[in-house]
């Protein structure tokens, strides 16, 4: 950390400032020297200072004024005040204005070095914490949901509107469309984000254990219950519980889940004592719950309780214009993970990937790009890196349209041009050839449809 720390020493007695700077430079710090408060202020305004060591009494700008200005310009900087005229009142005033510490002359160099080391460590922790929050924001903020299509823009708008509420959410969509990612995004943009979201996949838990997983149990309540255990609802108190594959939940458990949602109270198996819980519920399924209701496999009253706000994720084949964005994002991600230096993916390979219908949706595309990155020995991903089953199906199937029945001819043409441009990374000459029109015609249509 020391090679990254810049210390400014301000003292209108040059010999004192120089001696202090040299003592700190010997242990690896980079030091700047100012022999007046005004000179120190000019260096601070440049913005490359981590710690300021300043004399309290100076002729032009004193240490307290320098402290105040530094905190306004560089709020993360730490300030150490040094003076030969120490009083309790001055020390208290300095600390209240934001000084990290207050030292008396003559300076004990070892003491000063120890104090500086503490401040460097503190700043390192603050930086790490900020970086962690930045990474979490990047990973779980809205920027982590990739898509520029109208279908995904609708999803973005709903997520923005509901994240700050406590409303129960039902996320529907095929496997691999990113339902858990949406749930995490809602949680991590909510007031409950300081506590971890609790996740339970209903389909992954045997029926006889599901209630214990949800509501907990007391010791000896059933064979194998060797100790008391909290359920997912208790663990998610003041947080969010994500129930994945809720359509696979047995009817007997659905009844108890409905009661918990209505009353805000759970009872552990083997206990008669109710426990109040404050949990936001987000459920997800890849099944059609309306169909399950008609078949008598899902309770209609529970469905209405879960479906307060609905987020429907489109399959990738219905938002093909997002394929290029997803490919580029996954390429960057896996190059970093696997330490590969791959600059891009060829136009021919993009065409193959764009034509493939992606039955496994975004998850399948992500796995495909990782496979290509891992096996590649070149700096450009080509057709030869594409997995065989994708190559075969892409050659057999016609390109699936991304437009829907009921759209106007102009809307269909706009989508076709937009998707074609995306497949060739915006190359208008190549897009015009693929569309079978002249470049001038393409330019006029781009202008007409607002695609420039």
How are the SSEs ordered, and which strands pair?
Elements (H helix, E strand, L loop, with lengths): L5 E5 L3 H12 L4 E5 L2 H9 L5 E5 L7 H11 L4 E6 L4 H9 L4 E4 L4 H32 L9 H13 L6 E4 L6 H10 L9 E4 L5 H9 L16 H4 L3 E6 L6 H13 L1 E2 L8 E2 L2 E7 L3 H6 L5 H7 L2 E4 L10 H15 L6 E2 L1 H9 L5 H15 L4 E2 L6 H9 L12 H15 L4 H8 L3 H10 L4
Write up what this structure looks like.
By secondary structure, the chain is an alpha/beta fold. It has helices spanning 14-25, 37-45, 63-73, 88-96, 109-140, 150-162, 179-188, 207-215, 232-235, 251-263, 289-294, 300-306, 323-337, 347-355, 361-375, 388-396, 409-423, 428-435, 439-448, and strands at 6-10, 30-34, 51-55, 78-83, 101-104, 169-172, 198-201, 239-244, 265-266, 275-276, 279-285, 309-312, 344-345, 380-381. It has a five-stranded parallel sheet, with helices on both faces. A hairpin with an 8-residue loop joins strand 9 and strand 10. It is extended, with a radius of gyration of 31 Å. The mean pLDDT is 87.
Task: Give a quick rundown of the structure.
The chain is α/β, with parallel strands linked by helices. Helices cover 48% and strands 13% of the residues.
Assembly classification: single chain
> Total number of β-strand segments?
14
The general outline is extended
Low-confidence stretches: none
- Beta-strand residue fraction: 5-15%
Helix amount: 40-55%
What is the alpha-carbon Rg in Å? Answer: 31 Å
Query: How does CATH name the architecture of the largest domain?
Result: 3-Layer(aba) Sandwich
Question: What's the rounded overall pLDDT mean?
Answer: 87
Order the strands across the largest sheet as they lie in space. 2-1-3-4-5
């Amino acid at each position: 950390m020391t090679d990254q720390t810049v210390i400014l020493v301000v003292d209108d007695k040059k010999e004192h400032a120089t001696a202090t700077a040299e003592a700190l430079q010997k242990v690896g710090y980079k030091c700047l020297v100012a022999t007046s408060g005004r000179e120190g202020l000019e260096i601070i305004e440049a913005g490359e200072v981590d710690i300021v060591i300043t004399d309290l009494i100076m002729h032009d700008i004193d240490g307290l004024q320098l402290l105040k200005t530094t905190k306004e310009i560089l709020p993360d900087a730490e300030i150490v005040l040094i003076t030969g005229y120490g009083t309790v009142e001055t020390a208290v005033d300095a600390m209240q204005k934001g000084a990290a510490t207050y030292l008396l002359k003559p300076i004990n160099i070892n003491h000063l070095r120890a104090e500086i080391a503490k401040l460097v460590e503190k700043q390192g922790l603050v930086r790490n914490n900020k970086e962690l929050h930045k990474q979490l924001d990047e990973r779980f903020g809205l920027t982590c949901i990739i898509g520029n299509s109208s279908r995904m823009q609708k999803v973005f708008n709903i997520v923005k509107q509901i994240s700050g509420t406590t409303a129960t959410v039902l996320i529907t969509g095929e496997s691999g469309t990113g339902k858990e990612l949406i749930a995490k995004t809602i949680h991590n943009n909510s007031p409950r984000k300081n506590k971890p979201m609790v996740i339970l996949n209903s389909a992954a838990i045997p029926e006889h254990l599901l209630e214990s997983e949800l509501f907990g149990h007391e010791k000896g309540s059933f064979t194998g219950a060797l100790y008391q255990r909290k359920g997912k609802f208790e663990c998610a108190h003041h947080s969010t519980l994500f129930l994945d594959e809720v359509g696979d939940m047995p009817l007997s458990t659905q009844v108890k889940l409905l009661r918990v949602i209505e009353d805000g109270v759970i009872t552990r198996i083997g206990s008669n004592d109710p426990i109040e819980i404050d949990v936001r519920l987000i459920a997800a399924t890849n099944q059609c719950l309306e169909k399950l209701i008609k078949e008598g496999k899902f309770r209609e009253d529970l469905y209405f309780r879960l479906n307060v706000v609905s987020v429907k994720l489109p399959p990738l084949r219905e938002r093909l214009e997002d394929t290029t964005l997803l490919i580029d994002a996954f390429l960057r991600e896996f190059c970093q993970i696997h330490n590969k230096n791959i600059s891009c993916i060829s136009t021919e390979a993009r065409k193959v990937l764009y034509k493939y219908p992606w039955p496994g949706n975004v998850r399948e595309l992500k796995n495909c790009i990782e496979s290509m990155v891992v096996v590649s020995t070149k700096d450009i991903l080509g057709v030869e890196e594409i997995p065989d089953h994708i190559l075969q199906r892409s050659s057999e199937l016609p390109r699936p349209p991304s437009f829907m029945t009921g759209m106007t001819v102009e809307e269909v043409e706009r989508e076709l041009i937009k998707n074609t441009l995306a497949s060739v990374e915006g190359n208008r000459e190549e897009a015009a050839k693929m569309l079978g029109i002249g470049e001038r015609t393409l330019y006029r249509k781009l202008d007409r449809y607002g695609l420039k």
